[in-house]
Amino acid sequence: MDLTSPKTVRQLCSRFDFTFKKGLGQNFLTSQSIIDTIAKAACPDGENVIEIGPGFGVLTDALCRRAKKVVSVEIDERLLPVLQYTLAEHDNVKIINEDVMKADLAKLIADNFADEPVSAAANLPYYITTPVIAKLLESRLPFRHIVVMVQKEVAQRLSAAPGSKDYGAVSVMCQYYSRPQIIAKVPAGLFVPPPKVDSAVLSMTPFSQPPVAVRSEKLFFRTVKAAFSQRRKTLANCISSGFAISKADASAILENAGIVPSRRGETLSLEEFARIADSVLSFTGGENNE
């Protein structure tokens, strides 16, 4: 069964009386080369894989051929009989009908993989891309690799370097937890039904420890949020507004961190954000950082 064939997709829709739900962002990939790229990046050494949103099972099939075991989390219960049919030849796959945003991933890993290596893979609906990626990264679960298909613009933002137009708070979040890299670009025409925008495959390698040391992660991310809250404003203005302090105090905090107050958030590296956050903590004495 060629699950990348639009004809096969149409036949499966007819066989199982399945219609696409726009609200779930269901667009199924029809390129075997892209599927193989995702599977190889997520499972280079035969490790276990958690897959999010298997759809008709086209990526699941490729993962099953490489991985020791695949656990796929699918929110749409209508797809369960389809997956049972399309993945019938594999005995190393388990389908869980659950919303990944509500799933206990730590328990899922413990129950299915014990202490064995595990990665994550997903063809993510655009409407839920950032929350899912944030959950995978912020959970600090022992993922060797996280490989996701996302909207091209999102992939560019997550992997953007300081000083670029795409660099923002989500870039800092992603790069605090992992090393992101775009490994493939995917035109909209390679999906059924085709979305309105192009996609990209983003591979993230989680760090065992963040690349910068901070005294308070909560304050670090609050500082990042403040710095990007008014992109046309200077850092002094953004820190002043974000922490409800005077501009003079904000300037003093920045100067103490070795940062020129007239700079803007999109020019800062992770290390500079860390210095500012620690300077805020020293200035406030641990107060006003909730």
Which strand-content bin applies to the residues?
15-25%
The chain-level mean pLDDT equals 92
Order of helices and strands: HEHEHEHEHEHEHHEEEHHHH
End-to-end CA span: 54 Å
Alpha-carbon Rg, integer: 21 Å
Strand order of the largest sheet: 4-3-2-5-6-9-7
Total helical elements = 12
In total, the number of strands is 9
Alpha-beta classification: alpha/beta
List the helices and strands and how they pair.
Blueprint: H1 6-15, E1 28-29, H2 32-42, E2 48-52, H3 58-64, E3 70-74, H4 80-86, E4 93-97, H5 105-113, E5 118-123, H6 129-138, E6 143-151, H7 152-158, H8 169-177, E7 178-186, E8 191-192, E9 199-206, H9 217-227, H10 235-243, H11 247-256, H12 270-284
Parallel strand pairs: 2-3, 2-5, 3-4, 5-6
Antiparallel strand pairs: 1-8, 6-9, 7-9
Helix pairs in contact: 2-3, 6-8, 9-10, 9-12, 10-11, 11-12
Task: Describe the 3D structure.
With 290 residues, the chain is of the alpha/beta class. Helix content is 40%, strand content 18%. The strands form two sheets. Strands 4-3-2-5-6-9-7 form a seven-stranded mixed sheet, with helices on both faces. The protein has a two-stranded antiparallel sheet with strand order 1-8. Helix 4 (80-86) links the parallel strand 3 and strand 4 (93-97). It is elongated, with a radius of gyration of 21 Å. The protein starts with 5 loop residues before the first helix and ends in a 6-residue tail after the last helix.
